[in-house]
Design a protein that fits this description.
The mean pLDDT is 90. The protein is globular, with a radius of gyration of 27 Å. Among the domains are: 234-346, no CATH class; 433-560, Immunoglobulin-like (Sandwich). With 563 residues, the protein is an alpha+beta fold. Helices cover 56% and strands 12% of the residues.
Amino acid sequence: MFALLSLPDLRRRAVLLGWMCVAALPIAYIAMVVLEGGRNIVFWDEFDTALDLIIRMHAGADTGEVLHRLVALNNEHRMVTSRLLFAASYWLTGTVNFNFVGLVGNSFMVATCVILVLAVRGTERRVRLGVVLAFLMFQLEHFENFIWSGASIDHFQVVTLAVGAIVALARGSAGGVAVAGVLALTATFTLAHGSVVWPVGAALLAHQRRWRQLGAWIGAGAGALLLFLWGFKFNPGHNISVMTWESVSAMVRYWLALLGAPLTFGHAGFAPLPGLLLLAALGVLAARGALAREPIAMFGALFALGALALVAFGRAEIAGAEINSRYMVLGALAWALLLFMLLELLASPERPYRALVGVLPALAALTLTANVKFTPQVEGFVEVRDRAATRFMQYGEDGRDLARLHPRPGHADALLRIAAERRLYTLPVLSRRAEFIEPTPNPAIQHYIDDLIVNDRAITVGGWAMRPGKVSRRGQVYLVLRSPQSTLFFSTVTLQRPDVAAAHRQPDWRLAGFRAAITRDRLPAEDFEVGVLIHDGETAELAFTPNRLLLAPGREATAVRNP
């Protein structure tokens, strides 16, 4: 086949393949982080939006109650689409899997980029847009969405629906308007700022002088917004006050900070400056004809601006200087579309990728810096969730650790108990059995057990372990329980131990902490020595501590800690 291709064709294909590999790098990294940090653990908002919903459905909730729960307000949002997904999971499988929900949520980010890339014509244009989207959208600034289904399923989905609606409208056909209307309605009932697609779509139709379609669009939008506002109430905790000069000023500052946050890595103090730059650049492009030349990119960016304005209206009073990761996807989308339009102005048929090559180092530096800066927050989020889950396994109740599965006392306990009794959902096993053939003893392993608990439900073993001269990585430490009859290996959850790293002056040991929580029914009634094993993918080395677990029958089970 290649013999039939001319040398220029081969060169073009090689260049295209090269750019595809470049774009795949940030996507592959995010995929690795998601796979490593994912757990089928219900956490915070998911108790109400998912677990409580399927419990009521299992209890025989009638159609009216189910519909009411689907459209119910939650902090000014009506999250119908995500609740429908949770309900569909229950209808199809009898349970809900938050790993699967997270996968679906992340697929919406992929879908957004695919829709935008396919919407532009020309291979070179698609390459330029695809590379920009890959580096700005697939980075850890958006960590909350990527690793928590409770955020991704709404905050990624609403962007996909809005972008899809704008692309459908831009096609110029009556069928496109109908598809756009369905997507816009769905976006409205996904998150409140999804409703911004209606005025943005109206602006697109007006700019293209499609007056008959504009009238139908305005009518549909008015109906959708009236449905959304039926019985609407503000959450009193959000302190959305009467409009004053001070409150409006605060909202505008927060809006500009949200716009600029992707370039300041979430730092709110400097973010309004790049936010102003974004507005100015889009204004210049609009004045130079970008609304007609690049309608999808321009009106897509306008949606992001309008959606963040609505977010600022709802969040400015309670957010302060904080910029949540979940909102930065909108700002990143606006910047990506702006950069694409600037590249299009600089591109030429003779050198279609020269400008892209010029900005690629800056894109790579921005993405790498964001990944480095937000990695501790990723680890912190995963740790908070895993700490709360392991303590729940230990005691059968939430709140026995500094971290909690749900902020309201007793709420997680009640829902998890009912879900377990009805076999709808249980927390996953976090410490799984593993097999190692003759691991190598290594007395040089440094270790300490500072969490050794036995009760009627489970045993918990936690502490830290590391090898001198080696970097501690997530998932490397295993718990070893050895008795005269058995040698058992269990995986552990990784905990950050900056105190250990600082005390030993080894920053590479920050992830040396671990915790295992194992229910008693998974352990034989034997007396165990407690050890640790470190597996780096190539070697498995172990060391035993002076601590013991006494589980043999004839006496009360207990843990014996020795210094």
